[in-house]
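Ticket #254: bound-state structure for NAP.
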Amino acid sequence: MERKVCVVTGSSSGIGAATARLYAERGWNVVVNYSREAAPAEAVAEQCRLHGAEVLVQKCNVADDADCRALAAAVDAKWGRCDVLVNNAGTTKFVAARHLDGLDAADFQAIYAVNVVGAFQMVRALAPLLQRHPPGAVVNMSSVASVTGMGSSIAYAASKGALNTLTLALARALGPAVRVNAIGPGLVDSPWLKNGMGAERYAAAVDGYKARAALAEIIQPEDVARAAWYLGVDAVKTSGEFLAVDGGIRLMPV
Ligand SMILES: NC(=O)c1ccc[n+]([C@@H]2O[C@H](COP(=O)([O-])OP(=O)(O)OC[C@H]3O[C@@H](n4cnc5c(N)ncnc54)[C@H](OP(=O)(O)O)[C@@H]3O)[C@@H](O)[C@H]2O)c1
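RESOLUTION: The complex was predicted; output attached.
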């Protein structure tokens, strides 16, 4: 049987890398995407190839529509199909919520350009391929910040809220051939927060999270990858849904 194809944006690290590896392990071909550094993407691609997957490593800044269209054209040329798109690439600026002057319009625009517009551009570029061999699926990597208003900054939380709404709108627009859902991870053990917060603040955030979350754990990239498999492949009657993978942090008072 022809192998199916999963495009995972931002898959040279963290959640995206774990997702690309899981799809490869389960018999799919994958696109590993990055926007800055090729070497980590090549390393993830090698791990995927160990499972027998064909891998396309593609540099693409999802905020750049020409890059998104070039990625889609490369996928079409190589395999002629895309069964699942995981819109995982994201960006933020770390600014304490009370420090309103720490964010300006340019910060909002830079964050929305990747987290919202980038996700839309990837869907638009890949829609013909997602529709070619139904059922196709899109999985948008939102955040628990989208429903709590917490997280690295107000602009980031708002962008993920917009991504949730984009998920609803695209689920309407692309059905019945393509399902569209979102995942809301909590605090994930990836470079994202470690780099953004620094080691000391990160360690304190992990302790605080474990103390408050119902499941008393932070989230591993592989936990999120399994949710991306579920929504991408198994959840055949689910579209427009938001699935929290947050250890139950939303259940607890702040
Ligand atoms: N970590 C958390 O606690 C957490 C919680 C909730 C939601 N999330 C969401 O999960 C997603 C992945 O986060 P992560 O923790 O796995 O982060 P990560 O380890 O820092 O990885 C981010 C990935 O995105 C790529 N990337 C960044 N900007 C891009 C762009 N404009 N175009 C294409 N690729 C880009 C990076 O590669 P390059 O640097 O080479 O571009 C890298 O591969 C993000 O959408 C984030 O908002 C994370």
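RESOLUTION NOTES: The chain has a mean pLDDT of 97.
TICKET STATUS: resolved
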